[in-house]
Amino acid sequence: MSRNAPRTSRRARALLILAAVTVAFAGLPAGAGAGQQASASVSAIGIGEQSPQIFSNPYFTALGVKRVRYITAWDSLQHKWSRDMLDEYLFAARAAGVEVLLGFGHARSAKRNVRRRVPSVKAFTRAFLEYRQRYPWVKDWVTWNEANHCGEPTCHKARRVARFYNSMRHNCPGCRVVGADVLDTPTMGPWIREFKRTARKDKMIWGLHNYIDANRFRTSGTRELLGVTRRGQVWFTETGGLVVRRNRSKIAFPGSERHAAAATRQVFRLAALSSRVRRIYLYHWQPPASALPTWDSALLDRRGRPRAAYRVLKAQIRRQTRLG
Questions:
Q1: Which of 72, 73, 183, 192 could staple 108 via S-S, CB 3.0–4.6 A?
Q2: Is 296 contained in some domain?
Q3: DSSP 284
């Protein structure tokens, strides 16, 4: 545990982890304890994965997971090739009985100036309505993926993202919309505070990618988000244990299959920090077999064999089954 973690006994920590995993897979309400050490009321577990092959994979079926997360460009429907990719994924998920959390990111274009452009609220709303019409069964949405990361054009546009969120809420009654979807980096707190100035306050869902907490075995980033938001559900919309990374990021992580399994356990410790944490989406399922990935936190290896992190996840499900 990190020095930021509460000083609880081994037995107490084990009970917290078990509570998070138990509710995650059973979908049962968790009883609240005192303060930040309340038992987690995670209601669902999902997998973040961009390939539709996941739905026919027997290892995925064996987990019994019924939620996935997919990220597409905000303007994907304007281009046939990206529209076809999205169709393939969403129709495959629907046929498999799996619910998709669908999120948006920068434009689909080889031109940097286009990718770096944030759409107007009018253009974004028009695009969102097209998604709603094409995929009316999708009820879970992410306004903008990793919106505080400066690989996205929204890193200095928190209020614009808030207006996107307000529009999505207005045009999709009954939907669950993740308003601010952020990385646990130093920009997170200021970005969220700016976002809150404009965003609707009711029924807020905060999305967090807490890779740093998970892979450095700390809790500070997750605690910061809980503190700066105060209320509303929290979904870990992307998290997991790193196996290897080749993307030249300045944020240093350890990485190996053994490390990834330990980091997966840490994710559930993080979920146990608050009863506000309701969902966890582990990223991702399987790296491509044809090329070395720039990021690999997958549950399966390139040959489709389960890794240690997969076995951690499956063991937690089995434990829950025995308990109840």
A1: 73
A2: yes
A3: -
3-state secondary structure of 256: coil
Using alpha carbons, select from 110, 90, 108 the residue that is nearest to residue 100. 90
How far is residue 304 CA from its own chain's centroid?
Answer: 22
**Cα-based distances in Å from 189 to 76, 118, 204, 222:** 30, 21, 16, 11
Measure the CA dihedral 229/166/27/314, to 10°: -80
Instruction: Give the tokens for residue 172.
Output: 């999709």
Distances (CA, A) of 269 to 15, 20, 41, 285, 320: 10, 8, 12, 21, 16
What are 283's strand-pairing partners? 48
Residue 290 lies in a domain: yes
Is residue 324 situated within a structural domain?
no
What pLDDT is stored for residue 32 in this prediction? 32
State the average pLDDT over residues 202-209.
Answer: 97
Tokens linked to 62: 């064996």
Secondary structure letter of residue 317 according to DSSP: H
Query: What's the whole-model pTM score?
Result: 0.85
| Structural domains in the chain (count) | 1
Q: Is residue 113 part of a domain?
A: yes
> Length of the chain, please?
324
pLDDT digits (tens, 9 = 90+) for 220-242: 999 999 999 999 999 999 999 99
Q: How many whole angstroms separate alpha carbon 121 and alpha carbon 127?
A: 10
Collapsing DSSP to helix, strand or coil, 225 comes out as: helix
Euclidean distance between CA atoms 308 and 299, whole angstroms: 8
Which own/partner pairs from 300-307 qualify as long-range (CB within 8 Å, at least 24 positions apart)? Answer: 300/57, 300/59, 301/257, 304/57, 304/59, 306/59, 307/243, 307/257, 307/260, 307/261
Residues 6+ apart with CB under 8 A from 54: 47, 60, 68, 285, 286
Q: 192: domain range?
A: 48-264+278-313
